[in-house]
Specification:
It is built from 32 helices and 10 strands. The protein is an alpha/beta fold.
């Protein structure tokens, strides 16, 4: 408190208020300061401390008003400026303005710790990290018990992606100030960026036991649970966080993505729309997720219109390439060369390429750039196009200039798949395969050809925690195929030797593995082998995209996939695919009985004619 002459009664009231404030009884402290101001409306200390109480209660704008009044009365008190800067930070004031106020405080007292703290924060925001780091180091040497400095130094380290050191500082902040929920939240966010989700989940559970009503912690818990595909639990926290503050667009987005994954598409759409109204213009992530929400309820018009927004979302895996040529917008291209390209993985490239025949029909020429390993198969399937390996520089530009326009394979949907009728009019199958190679494979299965041949896959190579729950291990998958008079062909790319050995030992000859076939890199062989199957059963991975584009009947199991199912029971892109959606409060292993029953239902009407026609074996006499 600044030195100020005051009647003893006033001083006693001020000291009483300070005592309440230090013990956390903020409303009682406010009453004391207001009583002083009734008698002495220009008491700078009372104005300042009343402003601080408003900031502590979550009213930073009112805090700024009172602290500025205090400065108007006495402009030479460093704590006044330090707390003004703190309140300015709470309302989101720009870093330059905060820095200026902190500097004013330090000009009055170079060791004012809150001013040093705010200066470090402002410099971090301004990317002046070396100077900010010096300030935090100085603070921690001079004030080793100052928990806020540890947290803010941790934020700087996290910004620099020095996660291990940042975690250590967040830990120390928690130890020094265990009653500040923000310390737990920032530590969790660091874990989140590290993808150390399980530890973050455990630490947040402990924090929520300590602060069961803290909505910021609930919001953070919802984010972490979403990242490990536990939306069945996370949605409760997300709903409570929004209930606490229905005008916080970040919380609304977190709730909306939970609804989306739970298959509650209409609620997701409405929640995203609320978030969009509240968010600043251009806020990343909303339009991309809103696109998925629209698609999840079958609104293709609005869904495809916003789908391009994925390129502006930091959480999207889309890779936005940079071209000198403009993007095709649906105009006449009969005399143009169009470069078609994909921004994501094999599954998206295959799905998007189901529209390539239509692009080829409209364009003068199509150049298709794909991953190098896919070039032979794509060239076979689209002989009218010039197919080549994607030519991408490190900065995502290209040196190629042999095209007039560009067309993203996925975003072509707004032109070629504007409604569900357009899916029914698409060419089936859209891809072809090496028939001679397929015959070579089939010759080795010929003795089994009068019985069903079923291709199988059970997992992705990516077994990150947020994906692994949608896949099966070999022992978990085996009950699905434990049946007589069926041949099961391995289509699982990058399968482990122990997995193959397990199936071979358990199936007693019913499991066939073409060990010389590289199912991951040799897509011509993978497609030819898939074409030999009457049916494919697999987790939601590229195995099912390959079977889908070859029109091989497929049983595919996985989570809610808005852009895949488009709000339908099946998969519009692949009419021969049956999609079994997982309940988000269960694991893939809980679906085994359903998958098994669906397989039995398919096999109950087994007829090899579809497979034989595909392989041009109408007589079955090869």
């Amino acid at each position: 408190m600044a030195t100020q002459t005051a009647p003893n009664q006033t001083r006693e009231k001020m000291l009483k208020g300070l005592g309440y404030q230090k013990s956390g009884e903020i409303e009682k402290a406010q009453r004391c300061y207001k009583q002083v101001l009734k008698k002495l409306p220009n008491n700078a200390d009372a104005l300042h401390l009343l402003g601080v109480t408003y900031r502590q209660l979550g009213y930073p704008k009112r805090a700024i008003e009172y602290i500025q009044k205090a400065i108007g009365v006495n402009a030479n008190q460093a704590p006044f400026y330090a707390n003004l800067a703190r309140a300015m930070m709470d309302v989101g004031t720009d870093a330059e303005s905060m820095l200026a106020v902190a500097e004013k405080a330090l000009s009055l007292n170079p060791q004012e710790k809150e001013a040093l703290n705010i200066k470090g924060i402002a410099l971090t925001s301004l990317q002046q990290t070396d100077e900010a780091e010096e300030i935090f180091q100085h603070l921690l040497v001079r004030f080793p018990e100052f928990g806020d400095a540890y947290r803010n130094y941790g934020l700087l380290l996290r910004e620099n992606k020095d996660y291990k050191k940042a975690i250590a500082f967040f830990h120390r902040a928690v130890q020094l100030n265990p009653d500040n929920p923000q310390n737990y939240i920032e530590r969790s966010r660091c874990r989140h960026e590290q993808k150390d989700f399980k530890v973050a989940e455990a630490e947040l559970a402990e924090a929520l036991e300590r602060f069961p009503d803290n909505a910021d912690l609930k919001h953070e818990a919802a984010r972490v649970l979403f990242s490990i595909s536990r939306t069945d639990v996370g949605v409760k926290y997300a709903e409570e966080a929004v209930e606490d503050n229905p005008n916080n667009y970040h919380r609304l987005v977190t709730l909306a993505v939970q609804y989306l994954m739970l298959g509650r598409g209409d609620e997701a759409v409405q929640t995203f729309l609320k978030a969009k109204k509240l968010a600043p213009a251009g806020a990343a992530g909303i339009d991309w997720n809103l696109s998925l929400a629209y698609l999840s309820v079958g609104d293709l018009t609005n869904g495809w219109a916003l789908h391009h927004a994925r390129f502006g979302d930091a959480n999207s895996t889309a890779n936005k390439r940079i071209f000198d040529a403009p993007e095709w917008e649906g105009e006449d291209i009969s005399d143009k060369t169009v470069l078609a390209w994909c921004d994501q993985g094999l599954g998206d490239a295959l799905r998007g390429s189901t529209m390539l025949h239509e692009l080829i029909e409209r364009a003068g020429k199509v150049v298709l750039e794909v991953a190098p390993k896919t070039v032979p198969w794509f060239q076979r399937s689209f002989p009218e196009a010039d197919v080549r390996a994607a030519q991408i520089n490190p900065d995502l530009t290209t040196d190629a200039n042999d095209f007039d326009l560009t067309a993203n394979l996925v975003d072509m949907a707004k032109f070629f798949r504007p409604d569900f009728e357009s899916f029914g009019n698409a060419r089936t199958p859209p891809f072809s395969f090496d028939l001679d190679l397929a015959h070579t494979f089939f010759d080795r299965l010929k003795s089994r050809a009068d019985k069903p041949i079923v291709g199988i896959g059970w997992r992705s190579r990516n077994l990150a925690i947020y994906r692994a729950r949608y896949y099966l291990s070999a022992p978990e998958f085996y009950p699905i195929i434990d049946m007589e008079d069926v041949t099961f062909v391995n289509l699982q790319y990058l399968s482990a030797l122990k997995e193959i050995q397990f199936f071979e030992a358990k199936s007693k000859g019913a499991f066939v593995n073409f060990e010389e076939v590289d199912l991951f890199d040799d897509l011509e062989a993978a497609a030819a082998l898939t074409a030999c199957c009457d049916l494919v059963v697999s987790a939601n991975v590229s195995v099912t995209e390959i079977s889908g584009v070859l029109d091989v009947p497929t049983i595919r199991f996985g989570p809610q996939e808005a852009a895949l199912t488009l709000g339908q029971d099946g998969v519009p892109w692949h009419p021969s695919t049956t999609y079994l959606r997982m309940d988000e409060n269960k694991l893939a292993v809980d679906m085994v009985p359903t998958i098994r029953q669906t397989l039995e239902d398919h096999l109950s009407t087994f007829d090899p004619s579809r497979r034989n026609k595909r392989l041009q074996l109408d007589t079955g006499a090869r």
